[in-house]
Amino acid sequence: MNPKRLLAITRAGIMESLHFRLGIFVTLFANLIYLVLVYYLWKAIYDSSGTAVVNGMTFTDTMIYLILATALFNFLEMFVVWDMSRSIQSGKIVLDLLKPMRFRKYTFWSYTGNHIVQFVLTFIPTFIVVMIVTKGAIPMGLNLVWFLIATVLALMINYNLEMLVAPICFYTESTWGVNIVKETIVLLLSGASIPLAFFPEKARMVVQYLPFRAVYDIPLSILLEKNGSDTWQGLLSLFAMQIVWLAVLTLAGNLFWNSAVKKVTVNGG
Amino acid sequence: MSEYSGNEAVVMKNVCKDFKVLNRHEGLKGSIKDLFSRDYKTVSAVKDVTLTVNRGEIIGYLGPNGAGKSTTIKMMTGVLEPTSGELLVNGKVPYKNRTENCENIGVVFGQRSQLWWSLPLIESFKLLRDLYMVPEKDYEGMIELYRSLVDIEPILHKPVREMSLGQRTLSDILAAFLHNPAIVFLDEPTIGLDVSMKAKIRELILGLNKEKNTTVILTTHDMGDVDALCKRIVIIDKGTKIYDNDIEHLKNYFGSYRTLKLKLSDDTWEEYLIDEKTTDVMDVIMEKQKEKKIKDVKIDEISTEEVIKKIYEGSAK
Prior knowledge:
The complex is a heterodimer of chains A (269) and B (317).
Chain A: H1 3-19, H2 21-49, E1 53-54, E2 57-58, H3 59-76, H4 80-90, H5 93-97, H6 103-134, H7 142-165, H8 168-172, H9 176-189, H10 201-207, H11 217-224, H12 232-260
Antiparallel strand pairs in A: 1-2
Chain B: E1 8-22, H1 27-36, E2 40-54, E3 58-62, H2 69-77, E4 84-89, H3 98-103, E5 105-109, H4 121-131, H5 136-149, H6 153-156, H7 165-177, E6 183-187, H8 195-212, E7 215-219, H9 223-229, E8 232-237, E9 240-246, H10 247-251, E10 257-264, E11 269-275, H11 281-291, E12 294-301, H12 304-316
Parallel strand pairs in B: 3-7, 3-8, 5-6, 6-7
Antiparallel strand pairs in B: 1-2, 1-4, 8-9, 10-11, 10-12
Helix pairs in contact in B: 7-8
C-alpha cells in the first residue's frame, strides 16, 4: 500500500472529471427538473392523504430526504459495469489488467477522483441550498462527521455491489439487462427513490437487513438523525451493519472476480 | 524449475493454449438455441511453442492474422494462463504474479492507448511514474533520454485525444519504456502510420533498445519494421512455430531466390524469380537473348516481404 500511488490515481481522476465540467452542470440542471417532478408527486400524495404526517414523516421531511438522496445518488453513482462491459468488448480490458496493481484496487481509486469532484460540485451545493431553504431542519453537529464516514463506507459498498455484477460481463460479454436490473433494485431498495419508511411493514423488515440500504438510507438517516442514529447505540448498529456488508461483499466480489478473470478471452487475438 | 541462467528474458517450453468456443448456430432460431447450448469446441490457439528470448534482443514475432501472436503475448504478460507447458518471464511465472510481472514489462498495442485520454501527456507520464514507483532521478533521466531521441516538446503538453495517431503511438511507446522495464511488447506499433512517422518510431525503438538494453518483442505486418529493427525472426502459424532464426537465413528459406529483371527491346520489363540453387541466372539471360534483344538487366535480392508472403502462403496450403 503506497499512498503516493493511490493519490496519483485519484489526482488523475479529479483532473479527468474536471475536464468534463459541462457534464456537471448538466447533472445539476437535470436534478432540478427531477426534483420539481418529485415535489409535485409527493405534494399530491400528502394532499390526498389528508394528514400532515405520513408514516412518521412530514412533507418537508420527505422532501429533504429525497433531495439529499438525489444529490447523494449523483455523487455515489458508478459506471463500473458499463465501463467494464465496454472495455471487454473493445478489448481495452487488457491494458487495465496490465497495470502494476491489483485490478479491483486500481479501478476503485481511479473512480475516487470523480467521486470527490461530484461531492464538491453537486452534493455540497445541494446540501447548502437545502440547509438555507429549510432553515435549520438539518441538525448541525457531530452528525456531519458521522455522515461523512457513513458516506465513505457507502461508496465502498456501492463499488463492491458493482464489482459483484461487473464480472458477469466476462461470461456474457454484455450486461445491459443485468445492469438495468441491478440499478433498479439498488434505487428502490436503498431508499434512494422512496424513503424506506413508506415501505409496507413486512417489506421494510426484509429491506432493513439488505446491503442496498447501507448505500443511501444509512448515510441519510445519520445526517438527518433519523432511525435511532441520534443515540450511540443506534449509530453504532448502523455502522456495524455497513461494515459487515462491506466485508461480505468484498469477500464475495474478490472470489467472483478471481474466477471470472480466468475467463478472459480478449477480442482481437 | 528448468535451467534459468538469468540471461533469458523469456523462456517458453512446449507452451500450449486452448480456448473453449461455443459452436454458434445460424439465424434467429440458432441464436436462441445458443442460449442454452453446451456444445463447445476446443480451439488450439498456440500449439507446443518452445522459444527463448535473450536480454537485449529485438525479435520480430510474425505470423498471418489469427496465427496466435497476440495469444502468446497475452500469456507472456500474464493475462492468459497457458493450458500446458512452461513459461518464464524475467525468471518468473507471469500469470501467477501478474502485478509483479507487470512492473517489469511495458506493453504497446498499436490500436489502443493506455494513456489518459483527456490529460496532457506529461500528466500521464507523472501518473505512470507514481504508479510504477519510479525514483525521481530515474524519471528525470528517462525524460532526458527521450528528449535526445525525439522531439517531445510539442506533444508533452498536448492532451492525448488531440494528438494525431502518430503522435499518440509515439507517446504510447515512450510511456511503455518510462519505468525502464526489462521487456517491452510492441503489438503492431506502426499500424496506420505514414512513412516518416514509421521511420521515426523505428529509430526511437532502436535507440531505446540500445540505451537501456531493453528486450523488445515486436509483432507486426510491416516488413519494413522487421528489416529496420530485428536481427532475429520467429514466425508462427496456426499456433505452431515454423521459423526461428536470423533474418539473413530467412532469405534462403526456400533456397536462394533472386529477382531477375530484364528490359526488352520493346521497353517492357519482365520479371523472373530464380532459385540460384537450381538455375543459373546467366542461363536465363542467354536463353532470353535468343528470343529478343535485352536493353537492360537488373538483379534484386528477394525482399523480406516476399519471403514472408511465400511462407504464409505455403503454410496456408
